[in-house]
Write a structure and sequence with these properties.
Order of helices and strands of chain A: HHHHHHHHHHHHHHHHHHHHHHHH
Subcellular location (chains A, B): Membrane
Oligomer: homodimer
Protein name (chains A, B): Sodium/hydrogen exchanger
Mean pLDDT of chain A: 83
InterPro entries (chains A, B): Cation/H_exchanger_TM (IPR006153), Na+/solute_symporter_sf (IPR038770)
Membrane topology (chains A, B): Multi-pass membrane protein
CATH class of the largest domain in chain A: Mainly Alpha
Helix content of chain A: over 70%
Low-confidence stretches of chain A: none
Family (chains A, B): Belongs to the monovalent cation:proton antiporter 2 (CPA2) transporter (TC 2.A.37) family.
CATH architecture of the largest domain in chain A: Up-down Bundle
Largest sheet of chain A: none
Number of strands of chain A: 0
Structural class of chain A: mainly alpha
CATH topology of the largest domain in chain A: Na+/H+ antiporter like fold
Radius of gyration of chain A: 27 Å
Number of domains of chain A: 2
């Protein structure tokens, strides 16, 4: 009667998914595999059961699956844990991406494909699939192990680098050459956005959720959570980042809320429903005919992805100082491609620089490597043992030496403590700098648009710039104080009495004053450059800076109080006192 | 990047819904109202915030909301409770539908609309909105009260009658006259389908769920539940019934499962998400311009719906023997129109017999009456008190006499017990008859299609008919035995020794034998008529019936055992032993 093809398709998918989940659970096989096989069976390319009427519908539903999978992943994420695997994640992700792009490019060249096809193939192989890994680790019950946390860290770094890669590829496709400046600027903007969003998010969202939780209505909490999740995704889309990144970030922000357990519980059924759809959809996109036609390239690329990723990720993880077993488990967990490859393939098509076959090949390789993922993860432990037994003694000894050497260059005791203090100060300065930068960028970009027609443009600009500076004062004061502390520390260490003699105290004081003042002037110049579109003439600028400076000096203590209150609020949200 | 308008629209809806749910909860107002207002604000007709890009998307999502709302309603439904409010439900629903169709028709005529417009307007006002009532009662925390159970009963009867109404309207629109036969046939088929689906469903589904629950995976259970839900909806759509009916029925079937609590818990978040979307979508469809243009008819129709439904439903409920307060609460809960009115309006448009303005008018009246629903439900109790105080003494006395008279004609003690036995036997016979009818209908409709080309058509038909009869034997035997018991009871009561004298025993035996045998022959003739398309020639038929009859006699005890095992399984599922 009022049946739409949408409901029909959804019904077919859920029915099949229901059958398959029971069957595969009974056979003790990964359900993800079952979903994909089911997708192939009901898909449009296998004639007897073309049960799906509208492929676009399914793709849309699958995208919702990505949102909920990434959101759930964010909920289970911990900023503290990321910090603890930071070096490993960065090193492994960079090794993997550089190597896989090169391997992909060479394979494309080997098959005599056009240069652009080869470049895009390289990019497609670079990034592993967060959704598939999360699902597989979840099913195998390994999500909370240390190697899994490392994998998540690597995936986050990859996702950030992927955004840069998309900017790079667009640039190459349009201009035909690499635009390093554009890539750096994109990555810089992305990092800035992430820092500001996380800081503001962690200040606001957990408090809002605590307020809503007091109504004690599961429905109100759920709808609020979904509203925040989708609202943030909208913001992220507006800034032209991927919705997957947005869902992940808002999840990570909510992970700092005290209602986390309840939220996870509420979101779980919705995630399970849409992730089933997501994996069935992957199967749906698989065309056996293309598989056959491009069987040889697909096979070679699949092998390259599995071997290449296992080797490069394991290597990166090992070089960062982890033992061989953990490295192997990390590498074997990351050996697949997924949603990001489809995005890259679609980008090439929409820019009209790649051939038509690239998309189905990407889907086929993704499906195949997805099939292998759970088996690879399961096989990692025995395989690591096998490698260990089969490696020749000199190799083992060499690797042992490396690990020992890495241990030996780790800073010890006093020095380690000092390094930790310096690192914390630098982190604080960077976060405050990001906030100030965001304030000026926002004023420069949105201010003139909002206030257009509200009086003389020069006056408006001067007011905007003053407002931005005034808003930034607490953060600038904090930066000044942190830098002064850092400078004093450095002065203490660098100016030794045995060398400076009577000038020791004076030299130290000069250094301790010069560094923060110099840095502050540098920051102000940087901010002026950022906000050049609303920058008042220099004489006006001087008046504004002096006036705001006077305000800063007058309310010095209050500003410090305000900033430390914000800092404490942030700290308390992330480290809740024991109930 | 890969933002679709679908995700965008969903995000806007969820964001607004999240804001509104918190705001209205804070203001202690019904959240449903908030959702509708939010829908109007972001809707396409209020210029400043046309945030929704694709209306079709929203309608599709809203339909998913109907599925999950009806499914949840089914989960909370109990067949036993329906039986306990059966008479009230039937009487109130019939009173309401007949009166509202008449009122609607007269209003259409009053405004000088075309006859067809008036007829469709009548139909639009007939059926109340299940989804809106469920939501409102849930929010007010009244769902488990007796009057709410009566409302649900009335809504189910209405839904069944609505299907018949659609058939009737289609007939009128095409032929220009009322086709009573078609309506009766439609209603008969629908009842048959419901009985068979419920019996088979309650035999199969709870056992399947118990099996799946043993895996102890929340995901597997959820995906199985959703698979069953959507699978059944597909079946129902295939038979051209409404998806709302299907979702409700499979919910009612699962309500007999022992995993009910867990299932409700898993489905709740999904329902909350989609029901928020459903109510926002109602607001989206509201065009203030049409509201203004047709302000007067809309106002009159709204008043007619509220007053008409309150009066007719209260009256029907009171006449069925309930007290005034309960009757008033039932009537005031049912005073709105909803999704069914949109279906009728859409039907008229697609048949090209109604004018364009009817659809927006239906939406406006639905939105307005939906707005009033929670307030009416809340006001029911004080209003009933007010009516009671203001009614003149004679009226009160008259109503009191009626209630007392109704009490007096209720069967007492022995007679009541006897009536209960007879009712149970008749119910058993009817259920078995439905099953047998379904077997023969299935054989006649699907058999020839499936077996086409597998040999001689006459031979295939004869085999099909024999198979159907053989399958029906356990149920036919059960019917025979139940009817015999009934006949013996009747004989005992009707043939008194003081009148029949020495012939008493003989007369009783004749009656006890004649009735079941006669009924069985009647049933066989009825089945032959149903399966006329596969009926073998009469000599073959005779052979088949005699052969199957011989089998029945030969395996009499085994057949009784088989049937009673099925019956016990059904009974135990519906009346689980205390754990």
């Amino acid at each position: 009667m009022h049946a739409t093809s949408f409901i029909h398709d959804l019904a077919v998918i859920m029915l099949i998914a229901g059958l398959v989940t029971v069957l595969f659970h009974r056979l003790r096989q990964p359900v993800v595999l079952g979903y994909i096989v089911a997708g192939v069976i009901i898909g449009p390319y296998t004639p007897p059961f073309a049960l799906i009427q509208d492929e676009a519908t399914v793709k849309t539903l699958a995208e919702l699956g990505v949102v909920f999978l990434m959101f759930s992943l964010g909920l289970e994420f911990s900023l503290k844990k990321l910090a603890s695997v930071g070096v490993t994640a960065l090193l492994a992700a960079l090794t993997e991406i550089v190597a896989m792009v090169a391997i992909g490019f060479q394979i494309g060249k080997y098959f005599g494909w056009a240069t652009m096809d080869a470049v895009f193939l390289g990019a497609m192989l670079a990034i592993s699939s967060t959704t598939i890994i999360v699902k597989a680790l979840d099913e195998l019950g390994l999500k909370n192990e240390r190697f899994a946390q490392m994998i998540f860290g690597i995936l986050i770094v990859e996702d950030i680098l992927a955004i840069g890669m998309i900017a790079l590829l667009s640039g190459i496709a349009i201009s035909g050459r690499v635009e390093a400046g554009a890539v750096l600027s994109t990555l810089g903007q992305l990092s800035l956005f992430m820092v500001v969003a996380l800081v503001l998010g962690i200040l606001i969202v957990p408090r809002l959720l605590a307020y809503v939780a007091r109504f004690e209505s599961r429905e109100v909490l759920l709808v609020t959570v979904l509203g925040l999740c989708f609202g943030f995704c909208l913001l992220v889309l507006q800034l032209e980042y991927s919705i997957a990144l947005g869902a992940f970030m808002i999840g990570a922000i909510m992970a700092e809320s005290r209602e986390l357990k309840q939220i996870e519980h509420l979101v779980e059924p919705i995630r399970d429903m849409f992730s089933a759809i997501f994996f069935v959809a992957i199967g749906l996109l698989l065309d056996p005919a293309v598989l056959l036609q491009y069987a040889w390239p697909i096979a070679l690329i699949t092998v390259a992805v599995v071997v290449g990723k296992v080797v490069t990720c394991s290597l990166g993880t090992f070089v960062a100082g982890n033992d061989g077993r953990t490295s192997m488990r990390v590498g074997m967990g990351l050996a697949q491609i997924g949603e990001f490859s489809f995005i890259i393939a679609a980008l090439g098509l929409s820019l009209k620089v790649t051939s038509d076959f690239l998309y189905p090949v990407a889907v086929a390789v993704s499906a195949l490597t997805t099939l292998f993922t759970p088996y690879l993860i399961r096989a990692a432990e025995p395989f690591a043992g096998l490698v260990n037994r089969l490696s020749p003694e000199p190799v083992k000894r060499g690797l042992g030496y490396y690990t020992a050497w890495l241990q030996s260059i780790q800073p010890q005791e006093e020095r380690a403590e000092l390094l930790a203090i310096v690192r914390r100060i630098v982190l604080h300065v960077l976060v405050n700098l990001c906030l100030v930068t965001a304030i000026f960028l926002a004023a420069a970009y949105f201010g003139p648009e909002w206030l257009a027609g509200h009086g003389d443009a020069r006056l408006v600009n001067a007011l905007l710039w003053s407002a931005a500076l005034l808003l930034s004062v607490p953060f600038l004061v904090a930066i000044y104080r942190k830098l002064k502390a850092l400078a004093m520390l450095l002065a203490e260490l660098s100016v030794r009495p045995e060398m400076a003699g009577q000038l020791t105290a004076a030299s130290r004081r000069v250094i301790a004053e010069l560094i923060p003042v110099g840095a502050l002037i540098g920051i102000l110049l940087f901010l002026s450059a950022l906000s050049v579109s609303i920058l008042p003439p220099s004489e006006v600028l001087l008046v504004i800076v002096l006036a705001v400076g006077a305000v800063a000096v007058r309310f010095w203590k209050r500003l410090i109080q305000l900033h430390s209150r914000l800092q404490i609020a942030l700290y308390e949200t992330m480290n809740p006192p024991a109930p």
